[in-house]
Amino acid sequence: MPSRILAIVIFALSALAFVFPADAQGTGFSVTCDNGAQFDNGVEIRVVQMRAGYTYTATAIGLNGFDPVLAVLNPDGLGLCDDDNTAAANYTVNLPTTGNVPASRLSSQVRFSHNDPSGFRDISLVVGGFGNATGEFVLVLEGMGVTREDNGGDPFAVRVTPGMVSSGVPLTTYMIARTTQLDPLIYQIDDRYNPMAASDGGYIGCDDAGDTSRCWGWSTNLSSSFVTTGNGRLPGGNLDAMLSIPMEGFQLNPNPDLNFINLLMTSYQQSTLGQYVMAFHIGLGTGEGVAQSGNTLPVQQATPVPQQPDNTNIGLPPGYSVTCDNGAQFDNGVEVIVTQMRAGYTYTATAIGLNGFDPVLAVLDSTGVGLCDDDNTVAARYSASLPTTGNVPASRLSSQVRFSHNDPSGFADMSLVVGGFGNTSGEFILILEGMGVTREDNGGDPFAVRITPSMISSGVPLTAYMFARTNELDPLIARIDADFNTVVDNDGNPVACDDAGDASLCWGKSTNLSGSFVTTEGGRLGGFDYDAMLSLPLTDLQLNRNPDLNFINLLMTSYQQSSFGQYVLVLHMGTGASFTPDA
Question: Do 384 and 280 share a structural domain?
Answer without folding.
Answer: no
